[in-house]
Amino acid sequence: MSAPLAGIFDNGVMWWGLAACGVAQLSKLVIELVVHRRWNPRVLVETGGMPSSHSALLTGTTAALGWVQGFDGPLFALAAVLCFVVLYDASGVRRAAGLTAARVNAMGDTAMAPVDPAPKPLKENLGHTRLEVLIGALMGPLVALPGLVLLGSPLHLAQGLGWFTAVG
């Protein structure tokens, strides 16, 4: 395995942040099954809903970065600030855009008839409620930190299973 590729697979911070995002997305499918009693795999690739996978991704990555490089460093500070911006945006701007789309869709076909004879409804589930953002934000570190601390990076896992020999 080449050194750059090994570096990517050895980046536990990135992979555990992505794992937190994946767990959040998978939980949407479980919630869909349990609460709404329907199989809807589209929720795995849709935005919005409970919990916020964007929040899980960023808080998981930020917490893992802090764990690896220190919570007092400038890189952690940058990640934390960007995390707060995305979390605020998810429950603010994106949510408002979704509510606006719902109002436009409620206007009916007559309001759009001169522009397009068969208008496609706008996507309404764009953002998140504050609770959806909070649950996603809690899920991130709860997935990423134990994974990083207990299991390490995907490369370390693969080496531990005997799939790859040590690089370098």
Secondary-structure class:
mainly alpha
Q: What integer value in Å does the Rg equal? A: 20 Å
Count the E strands.
0
Roughly what is the average pLDDT, rounded to an integer?
83
Oligomer: single chain
Largest sheet report: none
Q: If helices are DSSP runs of H or I spanning 4 or more residues, what is the number of helices?
A: 7
Instruction: List unreliable stretches of 5+ residues.
Output: none
SSE string, helix = H, strand = E?
HHHHHHH
The helix content is: 55-70%
Describe the global form: globular
Relative strand content: under 5%
How is the secondary structure organized here?
Layout (H helix, E strand, L loop, with lengths): L2 H7 L2 H25 L16 H17 L4 H18 L1 H14 L23 H22 L2 H7 L8
Task: Please sum up the structure shown.
The chain is mostly helical and 168 residues long. The chain is built from seven helices and no strands. 65% of the residues lie in helices and 0% in strands.
Q: What descriptive keywords fit this protein?
A:
7 helices; 65% helix; mainly alpha
